[in-house]
Amino acid sequence: MMTIASDIEVLARFGRALADPIRCRVLLALRGGPAYPADLADALGVSRPRLSNHLACLRDCGLVVAVPDGRRTRYELADERLGHALDDLRTAVVAVEAGRTCGEAEGKDCCA
């Protein structure tokens, strides 16, 4: 049974991971299935070192895992339910109001 503190930590980790557009793009790409870093970097148009840093963050947050595959390492979502959660979050946010940012209604950035 999870405690409230661990539930909060899980949500905070997820929030930190989603706070960066590149990490969001990585998670959405991995929603479609496992991928190798070089392929992800090419598909996302980012350098391999930059992608490596984002993958390390996502690993530290517990959202992706590195799976040895011979001489290579592929990455995948740590749990298939994360893909469903991403879909739910994406559609929930779009349903709220596309193009609206945090705090926009009050004229301030609540996330700054």
From TrEMBL:
<dbReference type="InterPro" id="IPR052543">
    <property type="entry name" value="HTH_Metal-responsive_Reg"/>
</dbReference>
<dbReference type="InterPro" id="IPR011991">
    <property type="entry name" value="ArsR-like_HTH"/>
</dbReference>
<keyword id="KW-0804">Transcription</keyword>
<feature type="domain" description="HTH arsR-type">
    <location>
        <begin position="4"/>
        <end position="100"/>
    </location>
</feature>
<dbReference type="InterPro" id="IPR036388">
    <property type="entry name" value="WH-like_DNA-bd_sf"/>
</dbReference>
<protein>
    <recommendedName>
        <fullName>HTH-type transcriptional regulator CmtR</fullName>
    </recommendedName>
</protein>
<dbReference type="InterPro" id="IPR001845">
    <property type="entry name" value="HTH_ArsR_DNA-bd_dom"/>
</dbReference>
<dbReference type="GO" id="GO:0032791">
    <property type="term" value="F:lead ion binding"/>
</dbReference>
<comment type="function">
    <text>Metal-responsive transcriptional repressor for the cmt operon. Binding of cadmium or lead causes the repressor to dissociate from the DNA.</text>
</comment>
<dbReference type="GO" id="GO:0010288">
    <property type="term" value="P:response to lead ion"/>
</dbReference>
<keyword id="KW-0479">Metal-binding</keyword>
<keyword id="KW-0238">DNA-binding</keyword>
<dbReference type="InterPro" id="IPR036390">
    <property type="entry name" value="WH_DNA-bd_sf"/>
</dbReference>
<dbReference type="GO" id="GO:0003700">
    <property type="term" value="F:DNA-binding transcription factor activity"/>
</dbReference>
<keyword id="KW-0104">Cadmium</keyword>
<dbReference type="GO" id="GO:0003677">
    <property type="term" value="F:DNA binding"/>
</dbReference>
<dbReference type="GO" id="GO:0046686">
    <property type="term" value="P:response to cadmium ion"/>
</dbReference>
<comment type="subunit">
    <text>Homodimer.</text>
</comment>
<dbReference type="Pfam" id="PF01022">
    <property type="entry name" value="HTH_5"/>
</dbReference>
<dbReference type="GO" id="GO:0097063">
    <property type="term" value="F:cadmium ion sensor activity"/>
</dbReference>
<keyword id="KW-0805">Transcription regulation</keyword>
